[in-house]
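TOPIC: backbone geometry
CONTENTS: sequence, C-alpha cells:
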Amino acid sequence: MAKTAQADRAANDGEPEQAATGDELLIREGDVAADYLERLLDVLDYDGDLDIDVEAGRAVVSVDGGSDLDKLVGDRGAGLEALQELTRLAVQQSTGTRSRLMLDIAGWRVARRAELAELGRQTANDVLATGEPSRLRPMTPFERKVVHDAVADIRGVFSESEGEDPRRRVVVFPRS
C-alpha cells in the first residue's frame, strides 16, 4: 500500500503524522496518476515526460515529449477524455476519494483551450453585432466551460448550456 508524502516525511524525521492539507492530497492524486500513466506508457512503449501540478483546486498531470502521444489524444480529444477517466478511476481506487484530476497530453488541452476561448469571444462579438442568439455545436464539459468563461468576459452577452450529453451545447444570448 502506498504511503502519503506526509507519512513518508513523518517516518523519516520522527515527527508525528498530521492531517494532509488540500494541496498535499492533490499532489498525492497527481503522484498516483503519474504512476498509472507511466506504467501505461511503458506497456505501449511510448516515450513521454510527466509533469504534476496543482491548479485551481485540482491535480493536473501533463504528458509531453513523445512523438506517438498524439495517438493517445485521438479524434477531437476523445482518447484523451477516455484516458483521463481511466486515470481518475485509478486515483479513486488508490485514494478512496473521487478525483477531479485534469490530464493533458502533448499540450492538446492548452491549445484547445486557446481555440475555444477565441471561439467564445468571436461568438459573443457576433451576437453583440447581430442581436441574435448563437448556438454552438455540441461540446464536452471541458469545452463548454472554456467557452462560458470567455463569453463571461464580454459585456452585453451571456451564455447557457442546453440539451443533454452528448449533444449538450453552449448558446450565447444578447443581454436585454
Notes: The CA atoms of residues 9 and 15 lie 8 Å apart.
